Structure formats: C-alpha cells, structure tokens
Amino acid sequence: MKRKLIAAIGVATMIVGIAACGSDKKDDGKKADAGSSSSAATTDKTITVWLTVDAQHNWPELVKSADDAIIAKHPGLKVKHEYYAWPDKNAKLDAVLATDKAPDVVEMGNTEMVPYMAEGAFAELDASKFDNSAQWLDGLKQSVNYDGKTYGVPYYAAARIATWRKDIAAAAGVTATPKSWAELTGDLDKIQAKEGAKFNAWYQPSRDWYAGLSFVYDAGGAIATNEGGQWKGALETPAAIQGLTAWKNAVGKYMHGDLTKDESDRYIVYGQGKSAMIYAPGWEAPSAADPKFDKTGGKLKTNLVNFVMPGPSGKALPVFLGGSDLAVPSKSKNTDLASEWINDFTNTQAQTTLMGKGNLPNNNTQLATLKADPANTVTATAAESSWFVPTAPGWGSVEKAQTMQTMLQNIATGKQSVQDAAKAADAAMDKVLNVKN
Fold it and tell me: Does the N-terminal or the C-terminal CB of the chain have fewer CB atoms within 10 Å?
C-alpha cells in the first residue's frame, strides 16, 4: 500500500477513541494464546517489537494491552518497542537483518512483504495459532503467503471508496448517489457541465496506481500472471487494455488538474473546493473537511457523501486493500514469544479496537459486523471485492521503479497510447519479476 496514505490516518477526523479490551479472550474456542502453556512461566527474556508511528500515535492503548497480556502469561518478560516512520523503516530493517540483532516482530506494509518472504527473511508461522486466520480478508491473506506457506499475520486494512459533495451534485440536478457506472458517468457529466471546464468533476491523480489498476481487475485482467512457475506481465492482454482504456477515458473527461501528480496530497486538493468527487481511502475526505484544509467555508463537513465505487463491469470496482502485516524475522531468537505477542495484538478484541479507530478488521467475520453499522457500511462493502499485487519475487523492484505510475501517467498525458504504455510496463516487469530483490 502507498505508505503515505496509511501514515496519514492519524489526521483523519473520522477516527474515534475506544478503550482497548483485554487481549486474552478468544473467539471460536481456540487456545487462550498462540502456543503458550496453560500456566504462567517466569522468564527473563526480552522481545523487541518494531511498529510504525501509526500505533504509537493512534492506538497506544492496544500496544499496552498486548504487552500486558503476554507478560501475564510469562512473568518477567520484557517487551521493548521501537517506532519508525514509513520512509525510514525498511532501510533500518535491511541493515539489522544482516546482523544478529534482528527484532522479534516487525510491521510491514502489505506490498512490502513479498521480497522479504522470497529471500527467507521471515520465519514461517502456523496460521492456525492466530485468531480468525481462516477468515482473513483475501487481499490481506495473499500478502502473507508465499509458495503456499504463511510468513506473517494481517494487522489491519483500509479500502478505497468514492466520496462526493451532495451540494454540488444537487446543484447539477443529481439527488442520489450512483449505483452503476452508467449512472456515475451520467451524473459526473451533469456536474462537469454545471461547474465548467476547469472544474474537476472527479479529481483523480494519474499516478494513483491503486485506482488505475482497479479498472484492470474490474475488466477481468491482472498486472501479471504466473505461468509454469514464472511470472510475466499481463497488461497487454485484451482485458487489461479494456480496463486501462476505461480508466483513461474517465480521467480525460473529468480530471482537469495536473496530470503528472500522485495522490499524496489529494485530500488537501479536495479541501480547496474545486472538485466534486474523489476515489480514495476512507480517511481522505474527512481529512479534507478538517478546518486546516477546508477552504470552502465549512461546506465539506456537512456535504460529504460516501458510496461504493461502481465499475464499468457492472459490479463494484475491486479495491486494493492497503494495510499492514506483522512478521517475525528468521533471525529472531524468540519466535514463539513473538508469535504470542502478535496474536495478542491482532486477535478478535484487538481488531475491535482497531475498527473503533477507523480501520477495517483483518477478517471477514468482523467485517460483516462493520458492514451492519450505517457509519461504516460503504467501506466494509467496498472491501468485499479486492485485489492484491503479484506475489512475485521481484515485485519490490517494480514498485521501486514506479513502473505502474509511469505507465498511467504516460497514458493520461497522451505521451503513449494505452497499448504502447502497457507494452512498455510489461517489458519492464518481465526483466525483474522473477529476480529476488
């Protein structure tokens, strides 16, 4: 997932507080913890847990709850925490993995997992020892599995939804949110005509590949496919071309901002009041309504309406489920204790805490309860149809090279045709997908 987006969850005005619950109460009759004995055993060990600043700033009570739970089972155990900003974490992790001082638990962005799993940097885990593992969300489950083995535990997720201003829609004669692609484009046509050529009926930065590639999956395509054990770019297939063409047409029609931008400041741009709709993680629109960013005189706060983004296929647009996973480095000397701590930090009650903070849970069972909540129905429904990046050994190189972003920008700006841009992206991927980073 784009880590800037997740890190910015802390500014979301939709975040609400909820007291952390005890982390040793389990669901579905499982053991009281991931591999602990029934009686407390005194230990003088220390486990080191690396988390990003999201946990430090937004749910420190959950961290304490997990610490308290494992210490209660292992008196004398010490839990040491280190917190990192997303841009700094992997460089520090790469450096420490070359030594004998690896942390016992490390938080990873879900798209960051693949190269580390491929290199054997993380220990294999027994999924059955973790709450709700049989119900992990598909997009998250894929991120912790490699060659049929489990190397991590999903932590939390975020999905993308559509949000528009009902006041602008109403001024154009639109009084209900769209349920189909035809309705959406028809409504956006009315808004564009009413607001004028310089207005963004839909502000959609071209380099936001999480949105652009959703159209590929909506059309039945994929970024890459595995053929006989070898990964190969698949963006030149008819289905992928169809999806990219639908995306190009929408951006060309409704996006009149800078076509070379990424999505990092989309919520700030939306707050300027020159756009009707965005397709983004659920925190972005409420953040735009924060007084620090709202330049509309307060209109955003009372006029934002969320809806599930329809796709050209006639179904909901598949979403990229961004989020975080927790892994145990292979060099950890405390694999069992690390696994216990992870379970205490991600179990059913922990997920309830994270849901209260504006996140999606890591499993379908609790997602269903979130879907029943009117305040969260849209996000939970959107998350039901998701996709994930190719779990190829060299996927990290594709992300580092920004291959997807370059392709989409070239298409949006007219620098390349859809076919030529897709061909170039496939060629670039084919050079690295099967090469371990």
Answer: C
